[in-house]
Design a protein that fits this description.
About 20% of the residues lie in helices and about 30% in strands. The chain is α+β, with helices and mostly antiparallel strands. Among the domains are: about 70 residues, Nucleic acid-binding proteins (OB fold (Dihydrolipoamide Acetyltransferase, E2P)); about 80 residues, OB fold (Dihydrolipoamide Acetyltransferase, E2P) (Beta Barrel). It has a five-stranded mixed barrel with strand order 1-2-3-5-4.
Length: about 240
């Protein structure tokens, strides 16, 4: 990458602010850290302690000359042309802001047999245990995610004393929308007995009025006459 490609028009050491994100190239590696060319007159320095979180034994284990990296400005001193950088991403989510049930987008940083570690912008990476990757059995976490993938995770538990974050990739029951017809509940033995008791205590059906009874009898007599005449015609036809 040339100076022209890296140099932002009008960018000077005095215009750079702490916390600013910059892209650069490792120009030199020393025992105490690495120098990064960010397109200015003087390179910035990433101390060995700022190459990554955790212990670093050798700078060469993390970076080498020619590597393109993302760095954040820690300290700027234009008077002495000093630029201190870090490759550790600043904390975006503070411990006090973490709450169970909160969902964050995160990047898969490491895959193990027991689960995956995800960077959600907190001080420490969170762990999605293999049992929290999906409802079904997961034989190998690498079958579901790869390092560098961006996924949505939900905070299950925070242990501030141990600085541990437990995450889940599973959807909450309320997030799963299913269009399923509700099944009719099977009545219990007590409910059946109660229904029977209510049926027995129901008042008897209303006694038909005399006019209704007379009309019903008349209708039945007419039906019997029609049936009788029909049978007689069939018998007469059969004899002929």
């Amino acid at each position: 990458m040339s100076d022209k490609e890296k140099q932002t028009p009008g960018q000077t050491l005095s215009s750079i602010k702490p916390g600013q994100k910059i892209k650069g190239t490792i120009s030199k590696v020393e025992l105490f850290g690495a120098f990064v060319d960010v397109g200015l007159d003087h390179p910035g320095l990433v101390h060995i302690s700022q190459l990554k979180r955790g212990r670093v034994n050798r700078v060469q284990d993390i970076v080498k000359e020619g590597d393109e990296v993302e760095v954040w400005v820690q300290k700027v001193d234009p008077a002495s042309n000093r630029l201190e950088l870090t490759m550790i991403k600043p904390v975006e989510v503070k411990w006090n802001d973490l709450k169970p049930g909160t969902t964050y987008p995160g990047q898969v940083m490491r895959i193990e047999n027991f689960g995956v570690f995800v960077d959600i912008g907190a001080e420490r990476h969170g762990l999605v245990h293999v049992s929290e990757m999906r409802d079904d059995y997961v034989r190998d976490p690498a079958e579901l995610v790869s390092v560098g993938d961006t996924i949505d995770v939900k905070v299950l538990e925070i242990d501030r004393k141990k600085r541990q974050i437990r995450l889940s990739m599973k959807e909450s029951p309320e997030e799963i929308l299913e269009d399923v017809e509700p099944e009719e509940a099977i009545p219990t033995a007590m409910e059946i007995a109660l229904r029977q008791a209510l049926d027995e205590n129901e008042p008897p059906a209303e006694t038909p009025k005399p006019a209704d009874v007379k009309s019903s009898k008349k209708h039945s007599k007419e039906l019997e006459d029609i049936l009788s005449r029909t049978l007689q015609r069939k018998v007469s036809t059969s004899k002929d």
